[in-house]
Each structure stands twice: as C-alpha cells, then as structure tokens.
C-alpha cells in the first residue's frame, strides 16, 4: 500500500477571520522591536490588512498517524524520521497528526504585484501574510485536535527534523491535489504562506518552547524570543 493510501486524509476550510494576522507579530517581522510605527505606516498596514483579508483562502488537510519512538527516531507510519528533537518533543504522546495548512496563493500574488509597484507595501503584506498563516494554523489546530491534549506543532526544518521530510508530507497528505501546494527543488513550498507539522496527541500542555529554541541565529527577524 502506498503512503498516499495508507492515511485517511481530511480537509477543512477556514474564513478570512480565521486567518486574521496579529498586528504585533507582523510588526516584529517588519523589524519593529520595542519601537512604534508612525501614522503613515499604520495607515499602510491597515490598507494591507484589508487587501490581504480579501485574498486569503485558508485550507488545511490532516491525517491521524501511529506513533512509535525508537532508538533511531520517530516512526509515523511512513518510515523512520531520524530526529532526536522530534522524538523528545513527542515523548508521552500516544499518536500523532500529520498537518498541512495554507492561506492560499492570493498572498503571494499581492506580494509579487507590489514588489514591482510599491516595494514597501510588498514588505508589509509579506509580514502580515506570515502572521496570517500562523493564525490560521492555530485555528485549524484546535479543530483537528478536537480538544484532545496535544503538544505544539513541530515542523520540518526545526532542529534536526530534516526539511527533506517535506516530501513525505506532500506524498502522505496528497498536498498538491488537496491544497494546491507544490514543492521546489530546494524544498520550499508554494504558496509560501504554508505550513507542515507533526502534532503529538496525548501530552498535556506540552510545547517545544518555540521553534527558535532550535536555531542559533540571533539576528533573524522572525525570532520569537526577542533575544
């Protein structure tokens, strides 16, 4: 049986409200750390928020997966993921969810359009789009877990969870057909405001202390701890 057919994949759709960006988060992505934007920037942000809300089409697919933690790493039913970070994160969990979500290609089109016409606006929409994707993932996560105790999302690229496992998500969740997501040779997704992740089920109130805990970069604009 192929990996595509081994999982029962479910699809859910959201609303623009589910993907509403958090302005404070978007400002952090734009480099405002402790500083307040001026009135003109706030006006531009509000304008971009309206355009983005009209462009997003939040959708998510997911599948429940078996979970076995071994000496080599984590087996989620499609092969072993050799990742000590993921294994540690999933300790105490009894099963897992393979998760993929996107806010659609509309955000990318706006970013590209204003990249040519008004670069400052493109930067703002890019930041808002990143926050919108996280908002949609948070909303979708609540729906797919159904209130079950679970740990936070853990994505390929965090720590030693190799980005190459994006290919497994693409195959197991049939993401191209269900979500319209494609994967480049460098393993980046299009639409760019898309997320894949493993969610562990059964571990109460467990988080990974933020994805930034696994990265040594102190200058990244997306760094969550502000350090």
3D architecture notes:
The structure is a single chain. The protein is built from eight helices and nine strands. The chain is α+β, with helices and mostly antiparallel strands and about 230 residues long. The chain has one domain (about 5-215): NADH Oxidase (3-Layer(aba) Sandwich). The longest helix is centred in the middle third of the chain and has 27 residues, at about 120-145. The strands form three sheets. The protein has a four-stranded antiparallel β-sheet, sandwiched between helices. A three-stranded antiparallel β-sheet has the order 3-4-5. A two-stranded antiparallel sheet has the order 7-8. It is elongated, with a radius of gyration of 18 Å.
Q: Quaternary status of these chains?
A: single chain
CATH topology: NADH Oxidase
Roughly how many Å apart are the termini?
47 Å
Major β-sheet annotation: 4 strands, antiparallel
Q: What is the highest CATH level, the class?
A: Alpha Beta
Order of strands across the biggest sheet?
A: 1-2-6-9
What's the helix and strand layout?
Elements: H1 3-6, E1 10-13, H2 23-29, H3 39-55, E2 59-65, E3 68-69, E4 74-75, E5 80-81, H4 84-89, E6 95-102, H5 106-117, H6 119-145, H7 166-173, H8 175-179, E7 182-183, E8 189-190, E9 194-201
Antiparallel strand pairs: 1-2, 2-6, 3-4, 4-5, 6-9, 7-8
Helix pairs in contact: 2-6, 3-6, 5-6
Features:
227 residues, alpha+beta, NADH Oxidase, four-stranded antiparallel β-sheet, 8 helices, elongated
């Amino acid at each position: 049986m192929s990996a595509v057919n081994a999982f029962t994949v479910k699809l859910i759709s959201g609303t623009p409200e589910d993907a509403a960006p958090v302005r404070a988060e978007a400002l952090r992505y734009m480099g405002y750390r402790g500083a307040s934007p001026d009135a003109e920037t706030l006006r531009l942000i509000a304008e971009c928020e309206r355009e983005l809300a009209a462009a997003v089409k939040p959708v998510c697919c997911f599948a429940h997966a078996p979970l076995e933690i071994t000496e080599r790493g984590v087996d989620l039913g499609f092969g072993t993921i050799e990742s000590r970070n993921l294994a540690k994160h999933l300790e105490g969990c009894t099963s897992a969810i393979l998760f993929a979500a996107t806010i659609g290609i509309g955000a990318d089109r706006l970013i590209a359009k204003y990249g040519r016409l008004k670069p400052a606006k493109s930067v703002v929409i890019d930041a808002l789009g990143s926050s919108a994707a996280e908002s949609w993932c948070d909303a979708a996560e609540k729906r797919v877990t159904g209130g079950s105790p679970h740990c936070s999302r853990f994505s390929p690229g965090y720590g030693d969870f190799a980005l190459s496992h994006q290919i497994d998500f693409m195959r197991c969740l049939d993401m191209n057909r269900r979500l319209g997501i494609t994967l480049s040779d460098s393993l980046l997704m299009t639409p760019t405001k898309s997320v894949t992740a493993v969610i562990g089920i059964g571990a109460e109130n467990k988080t990974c202390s933020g994805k930034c805990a696994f990265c040594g970069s102190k200058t990244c604009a997306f760094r969550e701890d502000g350090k």
